[in-house]
Amino acid sequence: MGNEAYRQVWAGQARLGLAAVLGLSAVAALGACAPSETSRTSQQRPIVVAEEAALISPAVQNRILKNDTFQYRAARSTVRAGLKGIAQRYINLVDMDDLALDGLRGLATIDPAFKLNMEDGMIRLNLDETNIADFARPLSRDPADWARLTTKIIRAGRSQSPELQEADNERVYEALFDGMLAGLDIFSRYSGADEARANRARRDGFGGIGIRFTKSENAILVTHVQEDSPAHGVGLRPGDLILKINEDAIGELSLRKTAQRLRGPVGSPLTLSIARLDSDVERPDRHISFKLNRAHIVPETVRASVEDDVLKLTVTGFNKNTSPSMHTILRKNDDAFHSGLLKGVVMDLRGNPGGLLSQSVNVADLFLNRGRIIATRGRHPDSFHDYRAGGADLIDGKPLIILVDGDSASAAEIVASALQDLGRAVVIGSSSYGKGTVQTVIRLPNDGEMTLTWSRLVSSSGYALHGLGVMPTVCATNTPVGDTQAILAPQHIDDQRQAMSAWRAAGMIFDGRRPQLRDSCPAKSFQAGKNGDLLMQLANRVIHDPALYRRALMLSEPVNTASRH
């Protein structure tokens, strides 16, 4: 089938949409059995495996099946789902032959002797220099056919390789999918069942008690207690030392194992034994027992503090509660904004790795009345979206500063670029990370998940964020460190106009200009240090100098994005 015909087949599959990918059922048939067992130095004649059956004796076939605990049917279903998901949803068209063979070659991470070559329509499996079996390449590019072949090759490899025989299904999935995805891009990845459950917990929440903690010898030290959580309800405090969870001493448990002990089904009971330093220095530490029930916990991603007359919102990520949390905080401060007690808002996105696209759009919308927040463009029809503001500015035009650095990525860059391009915020810091692609998550039959890049982010002013990021209005990296006066000098800010114009002119062109443009304000980590917080100092000066704020804001005048692509 030629490339054009393949594209037509893909186009038909693409219209099935995400529901088809997520709703795949298991394939019932097993693949063919493996050739007879031999040592790798054997010079036996290679066995040619036909489309449906290997030419091996029933006795050897039965012996292999009897001793092999590998779940071939499950593997076939999982591999088929992965291949189909990549073929339909990855941002660039992929060749099924290359994709499947790259996956199979990934098995060399389990046994380095495992080698595959394709010659004259046959796929040859070698271990070291010994040819184990030959397989007919599928005539179609159907993921089901390649998944069937994959399980046959795994079976043949396991019949000869002790390393492959010891690998369970999950280890094989990891090798296969890592091999497939390695040639795509750095943001497409596979997560096994355990890691996928942790990923879903970060996105959607989990059954827990609502604390953050760190290890302290044979105990864990509570560093934060989330409001309205079970831990908060029973009176657990930062500084408490948890010694036991139920009857299990913390001992040498790792942080990960401790987290697993604290989590569980929503509503399930839990007993904590803690040590608390009494406020009365004359008394020794008190030991207290707390009984509580786990609840659905969505990690906090927004922390609010008032510094003089400025509301600071520190956003550490974007999960399903980020926008609602920020909305609640802003509403609680309505009176302070209207009375003038609060002069403005600083949204701190430094070090923010991103998260849910929908939440970044909703956060930006809290400060906008109209305009296109972001657009996404990919290969799949479902990847084309224009996200527009449709709410109200909850701080009614008060000064808004966004802090970014070289570690602000993805969803954080959506918020910064939208509020900058629509003339609503002054961005201060350095060039952001430049992670301007959107990933979709496909849940696989083994309960793992595949994260695939499937579209690019296009800013309100029309430039692709990928490889470029957000150019700050006030760049803090091109002047002497800590020299706030030089950084905020009118000439320095005006110089940014030309750099920002070139930045936006990059549009959707991906060439050598992007790294060069980033050099105009090099990416840097800007966390608070022993000499104070430079970016917060700059933000406070800009908020309290109306003329300076207007000058900086003029670099990001509102743009008409109705006809942008």
- As for the CATH topology of the largest domain, it is 2-enoyl-CoA Hydratase, Chain A, domain 1
Euclidean distance between termini CA atoms = 33 Å
Largest sheet report: 6 strands, antiparallel
The total beta strand count reads: 23
Helix count equals 20
Q: Whole-number average pLDDT?
A: 83
Instruction: Specify the overall morphology.
Output: globular
Fraction in beta strands: 15-25%
Count of individual domains: 3
- CATH architecture call of the largest domain: Alpha-Beta Complex
Structural class: alpha+beta
Catalogue the unreliable spans: 1-57, 558-565
CATH class of the largest domain: Alpha Beta
Q: Tell me the helix content.
A: 25-40%
- CATH superfamily of the largest domain, by name, is 2-enoyl-CoA Hydratase, Chain A, domain 1
Q: How much is the radius of gyration in Å?
A: 28 Å
Q: What do these coordinates show?
A:
The protein is α+β, with helices and mostly antiparallel strands and 565 residues long. It folds into three domains: 3-184, no CATH class; 206-297, Pdz3 Domain; 302-554, 2-enoyl-CoA Hydratase, Chain A, domain 1. Helices cover 35% and strands 22% of the residues. The chain is built from 20 helices and 23 strands. The strands form five sheets. Strands 7, 8, 9, 10, 11 and 12 form a six-stranded antiparallel sheet that branches. Strands 14-15-16-19-20-23 form a six-stranded mixed sheet, with helices on both faces. The longest helix has 18 residues, at 72-89. The radius of gyration is 28 Å and the shape is globular. The two termini are 33 Å apart.
